[in-house]
Design goal:
Blueprint: H1 43-48, H2 69-100, H3 114-126, H4 129-154, H5 173-176, H6 178-199, H7 206-222, H8 233-241, H9 245-260, E1 286-291, E2 295-300, E3 306-308, E4 312-315, H10 333-339, E5 344-349, H11 361-380, E6 385-390, H12 392-406, E7 412-418, H13 436-448, E8 452-453, H14 455-465, H15 467-480, H16 489-495, E9 500-501, H17 502-514, E10 524-525, E11 528-529, E12 539-544, H18 552-559, E13 566-571, E14 589-593, H19 600-605, E15 608-611, H20 615-623, E16 629-631, E17 644-645
Parallel strand pairs: 4-5, 4-6, 6-7, 7-12, 12-13
Antiparallel strand pairs: 1-2, 1-17, 2-5, 3-16, 8-9, 10-11, 13-14, 14-15
Length: 655
């Protein structure tokens, strides 16, 4: 008989555990208690039972910190894109540095003469330590309030974040995320305190103080946390969602703007490739009926069967192109006026080159205003016309009217001024750019460019006046977010600047902004002093409430310099949107008051508010001064032979 085995057969080996995923170790967890083992079975029972495979062991729990294939791919993509963005930026900066290496250095490291202004402000504050101590205590108090609110929120208390109407902080994360909320609020506290401290100085020359205020605001705007990738939640979100592609596109935009500016950063404000003058902007039909070295005279087609007998001649600013009044059919002032039955002429200024360097007010008066008036009357067979001057074109037109009055010239029946100044005592922040220190820098730029001011120089100045809207918003959108600039016709026009002759520009800055000579009767043309009070022609002045280039009070002071009947109207919005506001858009509002009291405050107190555009109010005023209806005029059949279709050739010349 075989011997019975004395030992039980070995138990089957357990299945191998699943291999552990690579990554950080999981945190230690208490082991579950094992159930007590079952009582041992006899060998016979064991042999009688079918041998079943052991149940599969559960797979080990996933490691929450371990990277799977998808995560590794995302991380690699992000790393590669960050490296690509850095290389793109470095390459662009290096090329820009090389392109600028052979250019002459700036005349002054401080062209705006800010250092003396800040020294004056700081000296004034130091002389009043009690004021400085009070300001410091105020800042400390504001921070204590902020820290208290932040601590309560961190402890779980339901504390509503401080609201902000600042467009830079519109993203909800600026309020919802405690970290970004603290960044936002601490920045606003500090910047408001700094700007308020400089503004509180009392015993400093007003122009010096204004310069210090302006550049303190520029500085605090530049250091906003929204302007930096690491502290902008919207930019960080875009970076994460696109795996770094947003930053790559942003640096490509940055490199393209450096290249477009020939080594100087020229921030794109619009998709310039989406617009072409004469094709989808400046498309009102008409003909160039006169051309000389200074301007083209454009007569636009009639849109009605009859037109008012007295034509309307528009003088736009020579620092911009006229098609701000003809961007798209829906907002074209020129088309709208034609539809009201007016015969419209526009003086389209040449984009001057070095051959016009010595052109001044005399040339722009005689070869510009007077010749345009002459040719308009010749083309229409009339003895008088109505005129419009926009911005600096209005400054020239006002001086021309006084010159005409002194010489008994009555060819202008009425004149309208859009956002135009003649009294520059309160001309806004542009006064900061008329310091002799800065004018010397401007003169050097013009000499280097052959006697003209490059168009980009004036654009930079206007952009600085509204840095958050026209510089930093595009910096964030284009570079940090990697977005393409918008297809916006107004910003396309805004970037389509013209050059300016050296003599004309320096005279304008020195005589108008520097000395306020026109308002004080000290400005001369042809050796003859210009006296605006001699102008008895009916005038219509349009100002805009938020205009930062021609402030409403400056325009009001200008209106009171003339000797004839004056109608002053105030529109909502700013220098452009306040003027170019078609009735169909039903936007903004305007105020009217037939009186012209001593101050703007008195005028506003008696003014009546009207919804929508001011165009209809002006058209009614203009119609009373435009004569009887006459058969519609065809630009092709007048005494002046058509040269080419509108918008002409001068407006297409790029700077």
């Amino acid at each position: 008989m075989a011997k019975r085995p004395t030992k039980a057969p070995p138990a089957p080996l357990p299945a191998a555990a699943a291999p552990r995923k690579s990554g950080r170790p999981t945190s230690a967890k208490p082991r579950a208690k094992k159930a007590p083992p079952p009582p041992p079975e006899s060998p016979a029972e064991t042999a009688a039972q079918p041998q079943t495979p052991p149940p599969p062991q559960p797979e080990a729990a996933a490691d929450p910190f371990a990277f799977g294939a998808d995560q590794r791919h995302l991380l690699e993509t992000l790393s590669l894109n960050l490296a690509k963005a850095a290389m793109t930026a470095q390459s662009a900066i290096a090329e820009a540095a090389l392109s600028q290496a052979d250019r002459p250095a700036a005349l002054s490291p401080d062209p705006f003469n800010v250092a003396p202004a800040m020294t004056s402000v700081m000296t004034s504050l130091a002389a009043r330590p009690e004021k400085l101590f009070q300001a410091q205590a105020d800042l400390f108090g504001r921070y204590m309030d902020l820290w208290s609110t932040t601590a309560r929120r961190a402890m779980g208390e339901d504390v509503a974040p401080a609201p902000s109407t600042d467009k830079r902080f519109r993203d909800p994360a600026w309020s919802e995320n405690p970290v970004f909320d603290v960044m936002r609020q601490s920045y606003l506290v500090t910047s408001d305190w700094m700007n308020g401290l400089v503004a509180s100085v009392e015993d400093v020359d007003p122009r010096v103080k204004r310069r210090a205020e302006f550049f303190t605001r520029l500085l605090t705007d530049a250091f906003s946390p929204s302007n930096f990738l690491a502290s902008n939640p919207a930019a960080l979100k875009a970076l994460a969602e696109t795996g770094g592609e947003s930053l790559v596109k942003g640096m490509q935009n940055f490199a393209a703007d450096l290249e477009r500016g020939n080594g100087k950063l020229k921030i794109s404000q619009a998709d310039y490739g989406q617009f072409k003058v004469g094709e989808n902007v400046a498309t009102a039909p008409g003909q160039v009926v006169w051309r000389d070295e200074l301007f083209e005279l454009i007569q636009f087609d009639a849109a009605t069967e009859t037109q008012a007998a007295i034509p309307l001649l528009i003088f736009p600013p020579w620092i911009n192109k006229f098609y701000i009044m003809d961007l798209q059919p829906a907002n074209s002032l020129i088309r709208w006026l034609s539809a009201q039955g007016f015969t419209i002429f526009v003086c389209s200024w040449v984009n001057p080159d070095s051959d016009k360097a010595q052109f001044g007010f005399e040339e722009y008066l005689h070869k510009g205003v007077y010749r345009a008036v002459e040719k308009t009357l010749e083309q229409t067979g009339q003895k008088q016309l109505n005129a419009v001057g926009y911005c600096i074109g209005g400054t020239l037109l006002g001086a021309a009217l006084a010159h005409m009055a002194a010489n008994k010239d009555a060819r202008v029946a009425s004149a309208t001024f859009f956002a135009a100044q003649h009294d520059f005592a309160e001309a806004g922040d542009l006064l900061l750019f008329t310091d002799e220190h800065w004018l010397a820098e401007i003169e050097q730029q013009m000499d280097a460019a052959g006697g003209v001011l490059p168009g980009a120089a004036m654009a930079d100045t206007f952009n600085a006046l509204r840095a958050n809207d026209l510089i930093w918003s595009f910096f964030v959108s284009n570079y940090l977010m990697g977005k393409a600039p918008p297809a916006f016709d107004l910003l396309f026009w805004n970037a389509d600047q013209t050059r300016m002759p050296k003599r004309l520009h320096l005279d304008y800055l020195r005589q108008m902004y520097g000395k306020n000579a026109l308002a004080q009767g000290q400005f001369e043309i042809d050796g003859q002093r210009i006296d605006l009070s001699m102008v008895k022609t009916p005038l219509y002045f349009l100002a805009s409430r938020e205009d930062h280039i021609a402030p409403m009070n400056s325009v009001y002071r200008s209106a009171r310099l003339f000797g004839g009947p004056v109608t002053y109207t105030l529109a909502g919005s700013g220098h452009i949107a306040g003027v170019i506001n078609p009735p169909a858009a039903n936007k903004y509002q305007h105020w009217t008051n037939p009186a012209l009291p001593e101050t703007l405050e008195e005028w506003q107190a008696g003014a009546k508010q009207h919804p929508g555009s001011w165009w209809t109010h002006w058209a009614a005023w203009l119609r009373l001064r435009s004569g009887d209806p006459t058969p519609a005029r065809d630009p092709k059949t007048g005494p002046l032979k058509p040269i080419e279709p509108a918008p002409g050739a001068y407006v297409k010349v790029k700077s």
